[in-house]
Amino acid sequence: MDINRFGFIRVAAASPKVKVADCDYNVAEIKSIINKAIEEHVQILCFPELCITSYTCADLFFQKSLQKKAVSSLIDLAGFMQDKPSIIAIVGLPLQVKNSLYNVAAVISAEGILGIVPKIFIPNSNEFYEKRWFASGETLTDFIVKINRENIPIATEGMIFQTPFGNFGIEICEDLWMPIPPSSHLAMQGADIIFNLSASNELVGKNNYRKSLVLQQSGRCLSAYVYSSAGNGESTTDLVFSGACFIAENAVMLAEGKRFSLENEIIIADIDINALRNERVKSSNYLPPKEKSFNEIVCAIEPISVPFIYRKINPYPFLPTQSFENENLSEVFTIQVHGLIKRLQHTGLNKVVIGVSGGLDSTLALLVVAKTFEILEIPRKNIYGITMSGFGTTERTYKNAVMLIQSIGATLNEISIVNSVKQHFEDIEFDINDHSVTFENAQARERMQILMDYANKVDGLVVGTGNLSELALGWTTYNGDQMSMYSVNSGVPKTLVKSLVRWIAETQMEESVREVLYDIVATPFSPELLPADEEGKIAQKTEEVIGPYELHDFFLYRMFRYGDEPGRIVFLASQAFGDKYSIEEIVKWLKVFYKRFFSQQFKRSCMPDGPKVGSVNLSPRGDWRMPSDAVVKTWLEQLGN
Question: What pLDDT digit, counting tens, does each position of 236-258 carry?
Fold first, then answer.
């Protein structure tokens, strides 16, 4: 599996066993971890601050013997890397430049020592006395330092290391804790990944704060952040070190190491460079400051072929994680409700008309309306729930619709569309036995006509029920269910609708309503526009026609949240869903997705207002702007048509 081809790069953070001032021992452990990292196909590996000498050498840093040993150990490591073209390692050591000693990170690979990055912010309070030994990198005036008779670039303003698969920058420990860390500038100049070599001792509660800094900086910089801290071997005198290691990506923790280990520790993750760069491209403020100049170092590393990917690809990206499920679902529901509250307040209306089919979408919309009326203290009898049975309505969905409307205290209206649609077919000379798109759409448009006219009659607002996934696929009837006066579900994808209704049932509703909602959740997705089967069950099942909604929601998220190409979406879907769908099935339904999405944009160009609830939205006012006549050819060609 060539993950580099799909925009990923494999990185690692390590915390090795060390002995204070014993460079030979420390380098041996570093080499051992490098070998292990190569076995795991790691491409960039970060070690802790001053790991060659150890961090807690104190005044021993002034000893020429230790300084020389540190440099010779670095040269030894560079020689060790010569036959390892697939990995870059970042190590820490003290380095004298002219009349000052600097705490630096050295980047080494098969090409040798690629560059030196000094620590900028030197702590000198509480348990830290670093200014006693080290100068700030801001004092450097040279661009070159000589090591082993070679001229090595050393950062003065900053340094970006460019690899074929992603660019990276480096900061050291305290740099992260500053109001404007060097990584902020590095990211603005194009660093996709920030590596931090650290030696942060442990205090009660400090690890959570340290973790929050890593997460926040990765999110603020739209980058990955790889943090390696010194371990137990550094513990001496009054300080204890734990070897905390983190790998975060855009405010999400991908990997976290074991603390207080007595062994070498390494954590690994595959960074999604494509996703990070897409986020930056979409941010109109992500522009490099003109006053900063950065040295760019080109680094060669070979591509890797791996048996698996070191990250979990979520098959249901619209669903909240379990730890945030209650909070996030509550937020979605609240956003929907308060969007409708504002529309009712602005129009001065206190009545709502809604078509209730017994399916998931209309159920969610009705629950939103009910909560809205509760907050505004409007009697629920002012909610006019209308069932409009047609040729495909089943007994199950009809009964559920009636029970739901009655159980929440809304006003029930039952209006059959069968006779009116038959009359319409006669008027346009259409054969009722022809179950084509005309047969289906005539029913949807008749229902919307009833809702609109009934709303005029009672001076109410028609609330739409269609969801985000249907809008993406154009699985709506133009000027039928595509239309309404306010569409509360337009920002909610199908996979989230089901979870949201279940959550509302469990947390917001009394037992009598809950039973109905559970049965609605278990009902197959269907517009019920075609006649039922011989047993009176739903014959027209949406997912048999257009494909699984869980796949389409995955495609939708990857395409719009990250701008992923078709081949990358297929790769990610195969990783996310495992053996549930074959590559052939994924490609088949992705083609359907693209064809329908491009051909149906005209429906989204004139869609009704509705609240944006997540990062993906298809409203031309809320997020998505696309010409209705764009051609899908480029996307299909990448899938082999």
Answer: 878 899 999 999 999 999 999 99
Tokens found for residue 170 = 């480096």
Contact 616, 561 (CB under 8 A): yes
Domains of the chain with bracketed CATH: 3-298 (3.60.110.10), 322-637 (3.40.50.620)
- Candidates 29, 49, 249, 440; catalytic one: 49
Residues in contact with 578: Cβ distance below 8 Å, sequence separation at least 6, in sequence order: none
CA-to-CA separations, 504 to 354, 520, 570, in angstroms, rounded:
19, 13, 33
Is the per-residue pLDDT at 526 higher than 80? Answer: no
Question: What's the gap between Cα 282 and its chain centre?
Answer: 14
119 catalytic residue (yes or no): yes
Residue type, position 624, single letter: W
Choice among 46, 173, 245, 299 that is catalytic: 173
Q: Is residue 610's pLDDT more than 60?
A: yes
26-49: pLDDT as tens digits: 999 999 999 999 999 999 999 999
One-letter amino acid at 288 equals P
Joined together, the tokens standing for residue 167 give 């660019």
Which of 244, 245, 254, 189 is closest to 219 using CA atoms? Answer: 254
- Exactly one of 119, 351, 494, 603 is catalytic; which is it? 119
Q: How many CA atoms lie within 13 A of 587 on its CB side?
A: 11
- Is 150 a catalytic site residue? no
Write out pLDDT tens, residues 405-464. Answer: 999 999 999 999 999 999 999 999 999 999 999 999 999 999 999 999 999 999 999 999
Nearest to 336 by CA among 467, 437, 247, 167: 467
Judge whether 207 and 225 are in contact, CB under 8 Å: no
Q: What is the mean pLDDT of residues 370-387?
A: 97
Burial (CB < 10 A; 0-12, 13-18, 19+), residue 345, is exposed
